[in-house]
Every structure is written in C-alpha cells, then in structure tokens.
C-alpha cells in the first residue's frame, strides 16, 4: 500500500553550531534597541524599543531563516504487511484422542480469520515428532522466526498441548506469544515408570525390577491401589495389586539365555487422557555365569592340549581337567604320586557333582574300566536332562574299549562299524582337507568358517590338511563336516533336552600348529563348545526378533532346505501381518517398521519370538496431560494469552485483533497481534520555502525599512 506524507524540513547551508552562534550575535546586536529605557512626561522610566527595532529583528530573522534553508518535503512510502506466526504441534502427545482433529480445526479457522485482517500475513509452521527428543516446539519456532524481520513480527500463536521440552531458561521474544490448548484444564493421567531394570541377568538366578504406578493430576491422598499385569515372553500374565505413587519391587527368574521380554501393564484409570503410558516393556538378556567345564583326556597324544588351551583362554570358563597318564591294565611300577597330584575323583565328578557342570568333554577317552557303567549311564541321563557332551575321538573309538559300546553309546550320534576287519577298514589314514557339508553351510557352528569350501558346491577348502579320520555310521543328528570319501567327520545332535557333538578325528591340533596353512581351529572349537551349551546365537533351529530404532528384524534359522514359511508378526494392538522372509543359506530375515510401543511377536508356525519396542519418544509420553505450566511464563512476559479450546468437537477460539505497539495483547474473548506500521520510503520530493532569489531581496528590503525608520 502506497502513502504520501508531507512536512517541513530544514537543511542548513552552514553547520548548525555556526547558525546558533549567528543567532546569539543577532540577539546581542538587537538587545540595546529592544531594551532601551526612556522617561515619560511624568519622569517615570519605561522600556521603549528604538525606532526601526522591529524591522531590524525581522531582517535578522529573515537572514537566519534563509541560512536554515527550510524545505517542504513530501515522502512516498510503501507500507509492508505485518507477519504473524502460527506454530502447530504435530508431536505424538498432541495427536492423542480428539486433540489432532481439534488442533487441525483450529489451524483452519485461524488461517481464515487472519486472511480477513488487513495488512497481515499469517505463516504456518509445524513442529514435527522429534523421535526421542521430546517436543521441539521452540526449535521449530526459532527456525521460522529467522526468516521474519523482527520489525514486521506481529505475534506468535501456538497450537499445542503445552508439553514442550526445548524451551530455554530465558526465552527471548519481542512480540506477543499466545498459547491455545486443546481440551480443558484438570486432566488426569496414569503412567507406569520403571525406576530400575537390569539389562542382564544370570541364568538360574532371580532379578529384581523396581517400578512405580503414578496418577498425575490427582492428589496423593486419592492414590489407592492399581492392578499391575506382568507378562513374560507372551506367557499368561501374572497380576499383582500395587500401591499408586509408591515403589513396587518385582522378582523374576531368568530361565534361559538370550533376551527375556517382560511387559508391565497398569489398569486404566477412569477418565485418564490415554493409556499409552500405562504400559512399559523391559528386555533382560540372560547370560550364563562362569561356565563349568569338565575335560577328561584319555591316553596322551599330540593334540591333547588343544582343548585345554581353548577352554582356558575363555575367562568365563571354569575348567576342571583330568588326564589319564596310565591305563589301569598297565603297570610299569611307577609310583602313583609321580603320576598324579590327586586320585581321580570318579564318584565325586560323575555322581555327586555331575550336574554342576555345563559341559563334559572326552578327548580320546577309552573305556578301560576307569568309569563303571553306572557312571557312564549317569552321563547319558545328564545329557538327556539338558547337559552337554563333546567327544573328540581317535582310533580308540573303533576298538572294544569304545565309548559307543557303553551305556553312553545311547546318546552318541554315530557308531563304529562292526564285523571282522571293520575297525581296520574304518581307520582312514591319508591326507585330506575337511569339507563343510551342505547342511553344515546352514548350521551356525560351521557356516562362514574362514577358508571353508563353498557350502553345497564343488570346490576345496583352503585350510590345512589332516591325516587321520574314522568312518562311522550316523544314527542321528546333523553331519556338518565330512572327511575323505564323504565320510562323516563332525556330527551335532540334540538328545532330549541336551546336546552332543562328535568329532571323528584327532588331528584338529594340526591347524593350531599352522601346518599346511593352518585353519580356524579356535573359532570352530569355540562354536562347538558354545553350541552344546545352548548359546542362543548358535541355535540352528531358532526364531529371534529384535527392534532397533523403530525397525524390527526377525531372523529364522533352520537346517531345512526349501523356501521358508511365512512369518506372522503381531503388533501390540493385536493386528497381524504376514511376510515372506528373504532366505539366504540357513537364514531367513524379515524387516519392517515397528512404530507401536509394547511387545511384538513373530511366529513361523512352530516357534514364536518376542521383541520389545519402547515408546519412540519417552519424554513425549512421560506426561500426556495438556498443560499451560511450561509456556505460560513466556505468554505473560510478552503480553500474550493462554486459552483452552474446550472439549467439544469445534474448538472455542478467541477473536484476532490488531493492537498498537505497547498496548495489551489480550482481552476478554480476543487476542491481539501487534501493528508495527513498518514501511519502505520509495520517493522524496523537496521544495525550498525561502530560495536565494527570494531571501536576498527580502533581507535587503527589511534592512532598508529599518534604516529609513530609524533615520526619521
């Protein structure tokens, strides 16, 4: 809008200080004529200016005015419209229930009203959901204000629930700030807060969680008790009554390794804003404490120390190792105290404390009467009950002293061949490179071993050669490595609740010596030992799920060939989606967004896995009530208003008015936006009021009149 304004301006032809000096000299020159004292007829004294003093005064005034150079100035101005900022909160808490619709309706209404106000531009900016950083309303507002000249800022209107987490300690804003809140004051909200939860727990030992159920917006005396539902890994829930507002302790037993997902749900309080924060999810990773391993070495051989070195290198392993230096049937008259520091505690190890061990390893152990059949039967029962057994055998496995011919043979996954000359034929001697079988390429124990042959494809491994293996007849389990002629070399089997691993060669020690380039003996033996002890990451038939940064990953491991089945994923709200996993080897994966907080489950028809998804913005859901407490100080400091829009479908909005700078920015039923009257000067026209051609004759004329008057 263009405006034309006129006024009188001065542009002195000499410096202002010199002009002021000339005016002072003129007054001194005029003082005797203006202040002349005369006597009247009665003899009284009075002031009587001299003849011509008035014309002399006018002459000096005309001269000074000519030097001041008065001008008639006319300005053409382009007025610029003021800018108001509308900040819309799009965080999760501002979208609860009817809030989102109410905020959107208020935005549309305010934009329509602002368009009817002259010389006002309304800019709308949204404060989006900020992940785990809470509501970043002030950040969004500052970013928008950076593009608005402060001389044109009429005010800021915020549509928000008031839960703002980035407000500085001393916010600087030189325009009215108005807050419009959805709903009405006095809202209540129940939440469950986890005070302390361990990230890890020892398998077989209890852990303790500390939680508090709180009612926000309710007097402490009205707390009472609430029902708390505790569900672990999708099992039926356990319900406890907990006092509201006081800490409650929950004890849980860690029954297995890997993640245990615990979901805590507090019953909904009547009238609360939302039950979104009535649920908390805790994931506790079960770990084993100091794995106890019993290693029994039979007759001495070159690779005897391979297993000992491997197990002693693991700081989490407590190793008990016994070596049979002399078979019972041989007597070379060597004193016993020179063969062993202590007597072999057969009964103590294999009857009294057998189940205290997590793993039993027999390294080239032959049954020469040292272990009675009852103890070997105890070991077999120990395996069926969930124990772990690992056997590394040599030629002794083919003879009459083989462990396969004892009660322990019932849990060994292979038997030596029987018949005349079978033992001789089953001893395979000659250079060969161990190969990973097609099944082994899918098994976590042997997949992706450095130097291995391509699983299920022709080609040799690049690791070192071995020179002895045994031919045995597999009875159960999985053959993951093969020796010369495709003979089974390593078998892994599940027996009851336990695990058994059988290595049909005693030459793995060659890899540890670096022979022929060596091999991954450390990694392979570690995987075998930990698979037998049921480490979750080495399960060959398993389904796991995890959620990181809002992304859910489901991993299915299986030895079965063919396309994997569909994975059914159930969200916390009960909705089910089906996904075809992407298969690669023995692994199949599904990835999808997991935005809902709570417990997610994935099922493949046989197994079910659970994963915990925390609220993506914990600060946002900590308190779901709409509140004016955070932003009211800013509104009061800038002369703005705080208004509630009510609980109805149509928001109750105040009128928009323009107010002058310095006036109050609010009133009954209205909020004000400042009128700044900012403008840009587009043109200036100046007309001298006393040009030189007029000033000179005027001054000379007044001087002449003064001379003639005084000359009379």
Keywords:
712 residues; alpha/beta; Rossmann fold; Immunoglobulin-like; 5 domains; 13 helices; elongated
Overview of this protein structure:
The chain has 712 residues and is α/β, with parallel strands linked by helices. Helix content is 20%, strand content 34%. It is built from 13 helices and 41 strands. The chain is elongated and about 175 Å long. The two termini are 62 Å apart.
In short:
20% of the residues lie in helices and 34% in strands. The chain is of the alpha/beta class and 712 residues long.
Task: Please describe the topology of this protein.
Blueprint: E1 2-10, H1 16-34, E2 37-39, E3 45-47, H2 53-68, E4 70-79, E5 82-89, H3 99-115, E6 120-127, H4 137-145, E7 153-159, E8 177-181, E9 189-196, E10 200-202, E11 206-216, E12 225-232, E13 238-243, E14 247-253, E15 258-266, E16 279-287, E17 291-297, H5 304-312, E18 317-323, H6 346-352, E19 359-363, H7 373-384, E20 388-392, E21 414-415, H8 422-426, E22 427-432, E23 435-436, E24 466-470, E25 473-474, E26 478-482, E27 488-495, E28 498-503, H9 509-512, H10 521-532, E29 542-548, E30 551-557, E31 567-570, E32 576-579, E33 582-584, E34 587-593, E35 598-603, E36 608-613, H11 618-621, H12 632-637, E37 642-644, E38 655-660, E39 666-667, E40 670-675, E41 679-688, H13 692-711
Parallel strand pairs: 5-6, 5-7, 7-8, 8-37, 10-16, 17-18, 17-19, 19-20, 20-28, 38-40
Antiparallel strand pairs: 1-4, 2-3, 4-41, 9-11, 11-14, 12-13, 12-15, 15-16, 21-25, 22-24, 23-26, 26-27, 27-28, 29-30, 30-34, 31-32, 31-35, 33-34, 35-36, 39-40
Helix pairs in contact: 1-2, 2-13, 6-7
């Amino acid at each position: 809008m263009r405006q034309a304004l006129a006024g009188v301006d001065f542009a002195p032809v000499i410096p202002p200080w010199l002009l002021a000096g000339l005016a002072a000299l003129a007054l001194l020159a005029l003082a005797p004529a203006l202040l002349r004292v005369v006597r009247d007829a009665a003899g009284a004294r009075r002031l009587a200016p001299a003849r011509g003093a008035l014309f002399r005064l006018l002459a000096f005034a005309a001269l000074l005015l000519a030097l001041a150079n008065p001008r008639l100035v006319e300005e053409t101005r382009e007025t610029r419209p003021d800018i108001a900022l509308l900040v819309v909160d799009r965080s999760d808490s501002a979208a609860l229930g009817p809030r989102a619709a109410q905020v959107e309706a208020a935005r549309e209404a305010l934009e329509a009203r602002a368009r009817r106000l002259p010389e006002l531009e309304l800019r709308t900016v949204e404060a989006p959901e900020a992940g785990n950083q809470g509501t970043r309303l002030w950040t969004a507002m500052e970013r928008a204000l950076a593009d608005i000249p402060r001389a044109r800022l009429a005010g800021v209107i915020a549509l928000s629930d008031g839960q703002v987490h980035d407000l500085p300690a001393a916010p600087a804003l030189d325009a009215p700030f108005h807050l419009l809140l959805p709903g009405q004051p006095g809202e209540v909200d129940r939440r469950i807060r986890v005070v302390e939860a361990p990230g890890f727990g020892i398998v077989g030992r209890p852990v303790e969680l500390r939680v508090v159920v709180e009612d926000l917006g309710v007097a402490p005396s009205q707390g009472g008790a609430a029902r708390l539902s505790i569900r672990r890994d999708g099992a039926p829930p356990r319900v406890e009554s907990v006092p509201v507002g006081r800490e409650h302790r929950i004890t849980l037993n860690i029954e297995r390794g890997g993640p245990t997902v615990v979901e805590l749900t507090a019953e909904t309080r009547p009238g609360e804003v939302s039950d979104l924060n009535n649920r908390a999810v805790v994931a506790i990773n079960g770990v084993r404490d100091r794995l106890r391993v019993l290693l029994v070495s039979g007759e001495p051989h070159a690779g005897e120390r391979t297993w000992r070195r491997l197990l002693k290198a693991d700081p989490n392993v407590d190793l008990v190792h016994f070596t049979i230096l002399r078979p019972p049937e041989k007597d070379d008259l060597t004193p016993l105290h020179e063969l062993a520091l202590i007597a072999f505690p057969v009964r103590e190890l294999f009857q009294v404390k057998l189940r205290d061990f997590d793993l039993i390893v027999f390294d080239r152990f032959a049954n020469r009467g040292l272990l009675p059949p009852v103890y070997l039967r105890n070991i077999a029962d120990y395996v069926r009950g969930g124990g772990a057994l690992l056997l590394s055998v040599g030629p002794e496995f083919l003879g009459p002293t083989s462990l396969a011919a004892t009660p322990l043979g019932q849990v060994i996954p292979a038997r030596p061949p029987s018949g005349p000359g079978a033992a001789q034929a089953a001893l395979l001697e000659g250079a060969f490179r161990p190969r990973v079988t097609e099944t082994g390429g899918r098994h976590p124990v042997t997949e992706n071993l450095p130097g291995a042959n391509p699983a299920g494809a022709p080609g040799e491994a690049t690791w070192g050669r071995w020179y002895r293996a045994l031919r045995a007849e597999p009875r159960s389990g999985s053959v993951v490595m093969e020796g010369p002629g495709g003979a089974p070399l390593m078998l892994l089997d599940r027996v009851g609740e336990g695990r058994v691993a059988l290595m049909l060669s005693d030459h793995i020690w060659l890899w540890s010596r670096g022979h022929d380039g060596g091999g991954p003996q450390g990694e392979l033996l570690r995987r075998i030992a930990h698979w037998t002890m049921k480490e979750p990451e080495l399960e060959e038939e398993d389904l796991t799920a995890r959620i990181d940064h809002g992304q859910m990953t489901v991993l299915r491991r299986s030895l079965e060939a063919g396309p994997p089945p569909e994975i059914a994923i159930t969200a916390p709200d009960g909705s089910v989606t089906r996904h075809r996993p992407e298969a690669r080897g023995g692994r199949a994966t599904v990835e999808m967004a997991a935005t809902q907080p709570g417990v997610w489950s994935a099922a493949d028809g046989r197994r079910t896995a659970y994963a915990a998804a925390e609220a993506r913005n914990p600060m946002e859901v900590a308190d779901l009530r709409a509140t004016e407490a955070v932003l009211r100080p800013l509104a009061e400091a800038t002369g703005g208003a705080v208004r509630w829009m009510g609980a109805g479908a149509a928001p109750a909005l105040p009128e928009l008015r323009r107010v002058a700078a310095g006036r109050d920015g609010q009133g009954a039923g209205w909020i004000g936006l400042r009128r700044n009257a900012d403008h840009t000067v587009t043109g200036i026209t100046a007309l001298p009021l006393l040009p030189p051609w007029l000033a000179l004759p005027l001054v000379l004329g007044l001087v002449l009149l003064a001379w003639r008057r005084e000359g009379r």
